[in-house]
From TrEMBL:
PANTHER family given in the database record: G BETA-LIKE PROTEIN GBL (PTHR19842), TARGET OF RAPAMYCIN COMPLEX SUBUNIT LST8 (PTHR19842:SF0)
Bias type Polar residues, positions: 251-269
Annotated segments matching region Disordered: 245-319
Protein name: G protein beta subunit-like protein
One of the record's GO cellular component terms: endosome membrane
WD repeats: 71-112, 112-153, 203-244, 342-383
Listed InterPro entries: MLST8, WD40/YVTN_repeat-like_dom_sf, WD40_PAC1, WD40_repeat_CS, WD40_repeat_dom_sf, WD40_rpt
GO MF terms, alphabetically ordered: protein serine/threonine kinase activator activity
Keywords: Repeat, WD repeat
Biased composition regions of type Low complexity, renumbered to the chain: 270-294, 305-319
CDD domains: WD40
GO BP of this protein: establishment or maintenance of actin cytoskeleton polarity; fungal-type cell wall organization; mitochondria-nucleus signaling pathway; regulation of actin cytoskeleton organization; regulation of cell growth; TORC1 signaling
Similarity-based family: Belongs to the WD repeat LST8 family.
Amino acid sequence: MSVILCTAGYDHTIRFWEALSGICSRTIQHPESQVNRLCITPDKKYLAAAGRHMVRLYDIKSSNPNPIMQFEGHTNNITGVAFHCEGKWMVTSSEDSTVRVWDTRSGQVQRNYQHTHPVNDVVIHPNQGELVSCDRGGNIRIWDLGESKCTHQLVPVEDVSMASVSVASDGSLLAAGNNLGDVYIWRMYQNHDSTTLLPCRVFKAHKDYLTRLLLSPDIRLLATCSADHTVRIWKIDMNEEHLEAIPEGPGSSNPDDPNHQSNGSPNQYVVNGNGTSNGTSTPSSISTPNPIVSGGFSAIANPDSRSQSSGSLTSTPISPASFRTLTELITQRRPLPCDTVLDNHQRWVWDCAFSADSAYLVTVCSDHYARLWELGTASIIRQYSGHHRGAVCVALNDYSNPP
């Protein structure tokens, strides 16, 4: 299968599609819960479906409708899932306020990191040694797997739920979006012993909730999905060096969506929970990476640096000079150029996936449809019809060769 395209959502089914014809080639029932997120392993052999409390792993090439493995341990909805580049381990995020790393061979938990709020998303840094997660308290945390601790915490707007995070394929950028529709972009600079994060863009991408955000494989585009029924495509200029500032005060919008379920939704826009950071010893299947993040720029100062064994935050406070620079730039919000608006959706757009060449985008929507867009013309190439309720997650792998 050269192209693997899967969608899932509230109708408790996972559907495999022939991308070019739009035909549904296979349907897997997922009766225990709706599916919140999908992820295809880099070798294209397996599909992970994240639902309530567990992730199920399905054999893509088999006709077996049953999962070949289940990863159990979360106590609430699983909101994010991603695989190590060789499939040796998997990371998940959950509304139970944890981020967990799993051995894909044994199904056992190797890491268990605690947020203070339900976690909305998690991604793996291309260096395979760091995780980036975000939560409903407005926190973005970077976790060093080698040191088994949180090394950076970014809080653009406290108590405003951070909905989604994305890291550039070369590790140069970190992008995040929140429930106010604001997007934040940091440059990530790495050397042999540290990572520095510098804010380079802040802008309002949508007037309503941002549900998903994704940097394209070629790092030239940023896609943002929203409750305003649109997906916007933003151009990225990698030569841009200007620092931008935190945007003006929070706006307001209505969180109610008639098709949004409180039990098991991909993103429930609730802030609650508590906990402290926690780390464990390095598991055998996760190799210790080159020395990476240890302090650096943080959007919130936390001078309470505890021992590494606790896995808690050890950030470098912002200098007064840096704070003044940010304050002076507050009114200078400059958005990225908006290249395209994909506005044929009828309801909330929940998720998206770029093609390997960054020329196409697949979106899924509460109007039950998945759509394949050609970004150069902003036109729909295929519309995938078959879900009986909202489609909320999509996974696409069209790379010619496994990584």
